């Protein structure tokens, strides 16, 4: 997919105030600092469309971006990072669950996980919650530039083995790096295919 335009639309703390438009949308979720905002910039080819930071807790609202005038990408606050205060975590958690349970325009969620780490309970629990609520999702492994190809393979294999203890099938997944653009065509191609089915 060619990205012809990518514009920031609005930030919200309340899902009820998100754009009324019924354009299809795709949301990025995962632990704080996993690379959600960076991935949005990498996919759109706009360096600072979404705000990123080395410090966790940068994205604090539900942010809508309009892509090619016909679909939305959504950047969300991260869940579960020890350095974000307990009250901030609670607020983020509320936006996140409300967003996923109420946003009818959501076509699929992308749960981002850092490819370097072993499966974390907080991510597995969130995927479980999405499954229980019938919300489709794919997994996006981030920061693949930090590992050698063999290690990438091994980490993905380990992740699969843990997921298959809970799921009958491995969810659809992508291996990405916002530093070198790995996975860009695959993720955009997937979104393009889904948009065509709507
Ligand atoms: P919150 O908004 O706090 O929830 O974080 P986020 O998930 O949006 O993470 P963000 O995109 O702000 O990135 C966090 C840090 O990871 C930044 O220092 C990024 O430069 C770095 N980062 C993100 N993606 C990659 C990647 O693919 N490779 C490498 N090497 N660093 C990355
Ligand atoms: Mg962010």
Give the secondary structure arrangement, pairings included.
Elements: E1 6-12, E2 25-30, H1 36-44, E3 62-67, E4 71-75, H2 86-102, E5 106-114, H3 121-132, E6 137-142, H4 149-163, E7 173-175, H5 184-197
Parallel strand pairs: 2-4, 2-5, 5-6, 6-7
Antiparallel strand pairs: 1-3, 3-4
Distinct helical segment count: 5
Low-confidence stretches: none
Total strands: 7
Radius of gyration: 16 Å
What is the count of structural domains? 1
Q: What integer is the average pLDDT?
A: 93
Give the helix/strand class: alpha/beta
Report the CATH superfamily.
P-loop containing nucleotide triphosphate hydrolases
The second-level CATH architecture is 3-Layer(aba) Sandwich
The end-to-end span amounts to 16 Å
Ligand catalogue = guanosine-5'-triphosphate, magnesium ion
Biggest sheet layout? 7 strands, mixed
Reading the helices and strands in chain order gives EEHEEHEHEHEH
CATH class annotation: Alpha Beta
Strand content: 15-25%
Principal-axis shape: globular
**Remind me, CATH topology?**
Rossmann fold
Strand order of the largest sheet: 1-3-4-2-5-6-7
Q: Helix share of residues? A: 25-40%
């Amino acid at each position: 997919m060619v990205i012809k335009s990518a514009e920031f639309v609005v930030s919200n703390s309340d899902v009820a105030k998100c754009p009324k438009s019924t354009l299809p949308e795709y949301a990025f979720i995962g632990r704080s600092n996993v690379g959600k905002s960076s991935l949005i910039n990498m996919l759109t080819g706009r360096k600072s469309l979404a705000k990123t930071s080395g410090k966790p807790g940068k994205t604090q609202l539900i942010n809508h971006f309009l892509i090619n005038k016909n679909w939305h990408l959504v950047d969300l606050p991260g869940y579960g990072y020890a350095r974000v205060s307990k009250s901030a975590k609670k607020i983020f958690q509320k936006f996140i669950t409300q967003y996923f349970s109420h946003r009818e325009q959501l076509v699929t969620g992308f749960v981002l996980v850092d490819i370097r780490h072993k499966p974390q309970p907080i991510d597995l629990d969130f995927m479980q919650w999405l499954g229980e609520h019938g919300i489709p999702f794919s997994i996006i492994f981030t920061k693949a530039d930090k590992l050698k190809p063999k290690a990438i393979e091994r980490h993905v294999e380990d992740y699969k083995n843990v997921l298959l203890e809970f799921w009958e099938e491995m969810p659809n997944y992508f291996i990405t790096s916002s530093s070198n653009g790995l996975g860009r065509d695959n993720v955009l191609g997937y979104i393009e295919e889904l948009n065509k089915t709507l």
